[in-house]
Each structure stands twice: as C-alpha cells, then as structure tokens.
Amino acid sequence: MRREEKVTIRLTELLRSVDPKTEERVEAARRRANNAVRTTLRDRTRLSLTTEGEGQRHARQVPVKLKPGMPAHVADVEFDDDIHVLLELSRIRRLMEAGVADWSSYQEVDARLETTDSIALDPLGAQAFEHHKARFEALLEILDARDPVAKILAVESDVLGVYLYGLRRGAPHGEIELYWAIIGLVSDLLGVHVEDLTIVVLTHELAHAYTQAGFDIDGQVWDTFNFGDSDLAVKEGLAQYFTHVCLQAKADAFPSAFGVFETLRKRQPAAYSAHVDWVDRSTPEAVRRAMLEARRRRAPVTRQAFDDLVRSATAALPPRGVGGSRGAVSREVRS
Question: What is the tens place of the pLDDT at every residue in 178-190?
C-alpha cells in the first residue's frame, strides 16, 4: 500500500483564518492599556523616557504600531494538516476545562431535576456524564501534547510583538510593533481573550523599552550595543519581571491579564522564565538595583553576572518586611 505524502501548513497560511476584526480589538486594547502600563512601569522601574539636564528636556519617543502578519523569523514554521481541527478545539478550551473542573457540581444540579416539577427536563444520568468528562479530558491531553503555541514561540525571540531599539536601526529612538494577526491566532490557540493577550504583549515590549531606553536619576540609559549583546535571559528576564510586577499592580483594571501572562510563559523558551527566581528570592528593590548596575556596565551582561548582581543587592538590603522593604513580588495568579 502506497504511503500518503505528509501535508503541512505554514504559519503564513494559518494566519489567513484569523478574523480581520481582530485588528480593531487589538488596537482598542492597546489604546485602553497604553497610558496605564507606561505609568506603572515608570513607577516600578523608576526610569523615565524623559529627563531634564543642563536646562534642556530630553525625551525618547517609543511609539506602538500595529502590524499585520508576524516577524520574518517565524514565517517558515509549519504544522501538520490537522492544525485547523486543533485550532477549533483550542477555541473551546475554556469550556472543556470548566467541564472537567466543575463536573461534580453539574452532576449534583442535574440530579435535582428529578425532584423539580417546574423544570421539564430529565436528568442525563451518570453514564452520560462520565462519557463527556472523559472526552473532555482526552481532548485537553491532545491539545497539551501537540501544543502548537509552544511551536510558534520556540524561536528564541519575541514573536507576538517586538521592541526595535533605536541606534542599530539607524533611528534615534526605538519603537514597538504588535503583530495583531499572530496575537489573534495565539489567543485562539490558548483559549484566551485577544484583549488580555494584547495587554500582556504590550506590557512586555514597553518593559523592554523602559529597561533599555529609560533615563535613570542621572540621565543615563542602557547603551544600545551593550543591551543588544547581553544574554537573552537578562533582556527577556527583566522584561518578564517588570511585566509580572506591572500586571499584578493593575489587576483591578486588567483582571485576567496576569493569568494569560503565566499561561503564555509556560510555553515560551527558558529565557522567558529567568525572572521566576528573582520573584521568589528577591525584593523588587533588589532587582531594580541590579538592573541599574547592569545598565551602567561598559560591556554586555551575562546571565551569571546579572544573577550575581541580584544576590549582592539582596544581601545589601534589609530582609523582607524589615526596615521598610517593599517585600517580594507575589506569585499568585489572579484571573
């Protein structure tokens, strides 16, 4: 018997399935969150995109632009030809997760239908319940095993958006690009709202901008070339750390964004979890001091060197909860 040739679908083709209205939703989320995120990042990093010096005011403009498609470095990513079925399953992931988690409660309510005269419905019965629960569990296992999002994010670089930092592009200031189509696709594959994922991506890219281009109290910024050549775990770790901090601080305004951030992080390369140890073991002030020291160095910063800076800053500061320390960042997921 002749074996059928395997058919694959490129990411560029898959993006054509994204609802065109996603662009409007991404833009609306960007407008709603932009000022609040910038203000919170400015407060938590204590860096600013403007500074005063020698009677002059200097400002770095970091505009945020929406772009269709995706970065060029992920254009060749391919999927098996059943990806469209996985995409449809992903869109009802929350329904399946709720079904598995809340099944016992549903069974209890369903059983009461026998004694409720006002509702003319017969109970489904235990056998039907167990069948559907098992089906949902099996489908969730398939989604987790195949995990198309992890395949998209496997590239060691930002995919959903990008911070393009100034001098290496021949421009005086950086800018941020958000790729609305791939944000829409990944939000479908994760089973989360486009708006929440947009806020996560926007915050991450703005965190890059503040950690690199933000002025400190002395008007200093992170040298473009030293920043660019520093370890990915340092650059992404800092962006992730301040995204974590910012989204927790804005939990009332964006209640589901932190949960989406954590869901996404678990599918990203290891560099995007470099901050987890800093969250668990150090105070925000220690991480901030380490960042300032890293920015002042006249050479690229390695992951080991930055971890050493965090440990030194932690040792030099009062213990958590002592002497006015702000305490460790919470790992609690609020969604």
Answer: 999 999 999 998 9
